[in-house]
Amino acid sequence: METTRRTTEPGYNAGVEEFRDEEYPMLKGSVYLDHAGTTPYPKSLMDRFARDMTCNLFGNPHSASASSQLSTSRIEDIRLRVLHFFNADPDEFDVVFAANATAGIKLVVDALRAGPDGFDYAYHQASHTSLVGVREEARNSLCLDDGQVEAWLAGSCPFGSDYGVARPALFAYPGQSNMDGRRFPLTWAQTIRQQGASGNKKVYTLLDAAALVCSSPLDLSCADTAPDFTVLSFYKIFGFPDLGALIVRRGAEDAFRHPRYFGGGTVDMVVCLKEQWHAPKTQFLHERLEHGTLPVHSIIALDSALDIHEQLFGSMRNVSAHTAFLHQRLYRGLKSLRHGNDKPVCTIYSPDPDQSDTGPVLAFNIRNGQDVWLSLAEIEKLATLKGFHIRTGGVCNPGGIASALGLEPWEMRKNFSSGFRCGTDNDIMAGKPTGIVRASLGAMSTISDVDSFVDFISEFYRDLSSQAPIPRQTLPPPNRPELVVHSIFIYPIKSCGAFQVPPGVSWEVRPEGLAWDREWCLIHQGTGRALSQKQYPRMALLRPQPDFDRGKLRVAYVGQALPHLPREIDIPLSKNPSLFHSFKSATLRSRSSRVCGEEILAQTYSVPEINDFFSGVLGVPCMLARFPPGGQGKSMRHSKAHLQKHQTQTAPPPIAMPGSFPSPPSPPDSDTERSATQRRILLSNESPILGITLPSLDALNAEIRGSSANSKTDISAAVFRANIVIGPAPDARTKMEPYAEDDWSSIRIGKHEFEMLGSCRRCHMVCINQETAEKSEEPFVTLSKTRRFDGKVFFGTHMGYISGKGQQQQQQFPTVKVGETVLPEWS
Ligand SMILES: *Cc1c(COP(=O)(O)O)cnc(C)c1O
User: Fold this and answer.
1) Ligand 1 atom at minimal distance to the Cα of residue 101
2) Contact 478, 748 (CB under 8 A)
3) Biological process GO terms, please (predicted)?
């Protein structure tokens, strides 16, 4: 075939771009660097499989029909092919198909646990979570570092005399760490098994080969040295099918001699009624371990996967040489990046591929020129916008992460109790990263993938100045800028379009924010999670408009007409919707939901017309929910905004309870820090009111124009979804400096005081055009370069109304209006 690639020589890349476009059309415009997660499936694999499926009928095995016989014989052949792929002799090994590597591990655990005495367990520190969890089933368990494994290899069994000798033990370790690519010797399995044999405790060995086999041949040709159990997932090697396997050395089959549960297909005879008896199948281990109907079509797909992999990449040896070459290039590229002051940009946790045997995985973190760690969430946002597929976070490798980052168990518990969870935005805790960035390569990676990633890190994360930034001026300018309220917006339904308050209208300000702002949201019918424009950009095309005369919120859909859906719908403003003529039987039902990761109790509308409308427009089963002011408990939320380090105001000291221990100073970059006064909010992300200023927006647009030639139109204020847009007064003589709002402590709008609560952290949702719902790269890409402090990106300012200031009568009904004077105060 023409598409076969000689992928070993460095210059192979010539012409490979066409191969990529042809075989991986779904990756157009993006760079895939998450092979440790899974590998993309080539088009010819899907074509080959589709052909196999449409030319043949595969039935349920174990009957005499032609379709059933075909499945049976093909599965037998494929089982053998899998063994050959790993150089394993079918007389010495058996393959048990399982859903994935994890399911393969569980088969081993179930068998050992069923023994009369259970089992003891030791696992290497670099193990994947799926191996760590085995400890919960073991009588005793130990997590071993390299030194402890070495000691075991040298003859000192970690299971001393305190551990029952009759009880078997299991030793498990990864062939390659899924976190940093480190590889571990396959000889461990043999030596440790032998150590067990010479002592009197039986020791089984389990090799987690899931990461290793993606980019390396696994050779099981010598049954004496092979691990007893090897687990892997095929999707990681081929991209498809979603299937895994447990490969068992026949010499270790006795581990499965205490079966309990039996399912369809695993028995030769079952007696029920008066006697309870069954005869398990005896010839092959896989017959006893594959309960129920096999994933027939997935197994059949393996045939195509093996064919196409060979056709495209030759052999695993080729893949290994190819990925090793790229890995070295990536390692050297990232390692060479330096800030202007010569400090390294990347802190790399993976071993140097020139010095040790390492898989093509690079784990690292980024620090800015002032040694501040960058937030992983932030790196991921920008990488996603730029089309890179990478993984960040704890990557399912708790022991590896803890040792790479020097996290002690007490720190991890402390982080957990201060709200850290896998996958949250606050990934720098107490000045330390809690996870890593992982870039991993595979058979289809190219030189340009590697180079563009290194260029990306260089472009966005290198500080070229050699000095620390000069602190910005903190004194108020000699003449106050003359400012006014330029426009006012509310967003009645969270993440949907804006309603612009008409000029001349005085809009009520409440402690929770502007009246009617973010009082409703759309929640997923299944998970209860509040929907966001990030996943459903079309929400921008849903435009709510309050109509106080008729007592309703009219929501219009301004996108392309959809069949069977009205263009608009009315929602009663009243908290009791059954007062509304068309919703006589309507009720609001309390339902638990999640907003920005926080559990809340919202009132959902049980009105099919309403929910069908929103579900139809967005193409997701959702319902409307309301979160009115004045709730208690989980029907109430608090502001999370706080001053950021780049702002010059000093944050208010935390309130200490009399007699309590002084709490340790909270880390300066923790986002969980609460401001001393707990302000209530409705469904806005962080604070009652969000403000932006036009001089800052102008400065941003100038930057965008200056840096990217292809930005045709200016970014509009709407993308920031602010409530109050502040601009220069008409004929202003004193101008406002861009980003002066960072240093304001409060502002007076008309007769009312507002406290500035801190800069607003941004995500790539600002890249959604609020008119068209189309996504682009800007303004987030430029903000990442010009408005990043401590690794986070900011634009606009959180604020809240200060009650109790101003005159009595106005206090009772504070309002804001377009054109009112804005007077900033500096602290
Ligand atoms: C991916 C992976 C696993 C888990 O594989 P599943 O397919 O999710 O069961 C286990 N160990 C390692 C080293 C892996 O890379």
Assistant:
1) 9
2) no
3) Mo-molybdopterin cofactor biosynthetic process
